[in-house]
Amino acid sequence: MNNENNTKLTIPEFGELSLHDILVFYDMPLVFVSKDIFNTFYLFQETIQNENQTEWLVIKITQKRYWELKYNTISLQEAFKRIEHGKYYLVSDYSNSEPTITSYDYLPEGKITDYNCFVGEKDNWKSIYTD
Fold this sequence. Notes:
Elements: E1 2-4, E2 8-11, E3 15-25, E4 29-35, E5 41-49, E6 53-61, H1 63-70, H2 76-81, E7 88-94, E8 100-104, H3 122-130
Antiparallel strand pairs: 1-2, 2-3, 3-4, 4-5, 5-6, 6-7, 7-8
């Protein structure tokens, strides 16, 4: 995945995405929203991070859903379970190759936390990612 200046991502299936907002940050962005050239919003949540691979669960969201997340009207878990647009995507970025994208018609098991987190609960996010 091409990441130029940490503000643009190029994912072949989505095109060039611009970083719109970082919703959860703990040493690095864990949950963020990007937009494409058509103003389509994409919600990313990190699911794997190690020296060989980074993986994100990605869904398309509406601007309304983005605001609901940002202002803690809806939890992250609820946003992923009540998908608005079609498919789930797992984007895997390996340190020595191009990213791979796998699409699903269902939420891949084990890819979101069982805890119903809101993006504003920073202390809870820290415990999830350090346990």
